[in-house]
Design brief:
Maf protein; seven-stranded mixed beta sheet; 7 helices; about 20% strand; binds 2'-deoxyinosine 5'-triphosphate; binds magnesium ion
Length: about 240
């Protein structure tokens, strides 16, 4: 059994990690998943994983007591830097355990890569307000639509980027990263996912990220790719 304590304050990320664990378990031949997807091909690419992973279940549990822990500053210029800072910081609250942190966000070509590492703080940074709306994801989405009001249909390319870092007792041990390419719509579609998902359109799927089931999001999304990359890079003996 390989257990990560996931140190994130974002419930949407936690749901993605639960879906990832279900996928890994299912592909080892387990039967724990009651919502088995019909798109289960090569979801976790087991052939490229190290033997300890093939032999074990991967568990992602929320870091115990996270609500009481003050959040660290996320002021690094890169996703990798912030993921590392978060993993190292939170690992001191779970002695001897593997602690996983995620830093992720959206890069929009027409905005020169913004909001990037500032994705969670996009509306606040832009001093964007909308009457009666205080949900931060909705504000960020409205802010994005406003900033892209004059960007034409062929110029709306964007990507999600995710970096995961694993630390134990204050030392960062390994990491992984993943991206997924898409386009920013002019109006939201779908009610799954979180964050920018209703505006993030995947041309090959004909759907937004908010219209995908979690197993498919894991298969093609930035977080699923980062997780497979991290597991591939994990040293075989821990
Ligand atoms: O799959 C995704 N689907 C939609 N939106 C996403 C996704 N992945 C990242 N995002 C957006 C949400 C947030 O605006 C920012 C992450 O900010 P980021 O600082 O990494 O996370 P957070 O503050 O929500 O939680 P925490 O730092 O405790 O992990 O990018
Ligand atoms: Mg954050």
């Amino acid at each position: 059994m390989l257990r990560f304590f996931v140190a994130t304050t974002n419930p949407g990320k936690l749901r993605d990690f639960s879906a990832a664990a279900e996928t890994h378990h299912r592909e080892r031949g387990g039967h724990r998943d009651v919502n088995a997807s019909t798109h289960s091909s090569a979801l976790s690419e087991p052939s490229v994983m190290n033997q300890s992973l093939l032999d074990s279940d991967v568990l992602f549990e929320p870091l115990p007591g996270l609500k009481e822990i003050p959040a660290p500053a996320e002021d690094e210029p890169t996703f990798a830097g912030n993921a590392r800072v978060k993993a190292i910081y939170y690992s001191s609250f779970a002695a001897g355990e593997l602690v996983l942190a995620d830093d992720s966000g959206l890069e929009v070509d027409a905005l020169d890569g913004a909001p990037g590492v500032r994705s969670a703080r996009f509306a606040v940074d832009s001093q964007f307000i909308a009457a009666g709306i205080d949900d931060i994801d909705r504000l960020n989405n409205l802010c994005l639509l406003e900033r892209m009001r004059d960007v034409s249909a062929g110029q709306r390319q964007a990507r999600y980027r995710c970096v995961l870092a694993a630390a134990r007792d204050g030392a960062c041990l390994f990491s992984g990263d993943g991206t997924v390419e898409g386009e920013i719509l002019t109006a939201p579609r779908g009610d799954g996912g979180f964050g920018y998902d209703p505006l993030f359109y995947l041309p090959e799927m004909g759907k937004t990220m908010a219209e995908l089931d979690l197993a498919t999001k894991h298969r093609i999304g930035h977080r699923g790719r980062a997780l497979r990359d991290l597991l591939r890079r994990m040293p075989p003996t821990r």
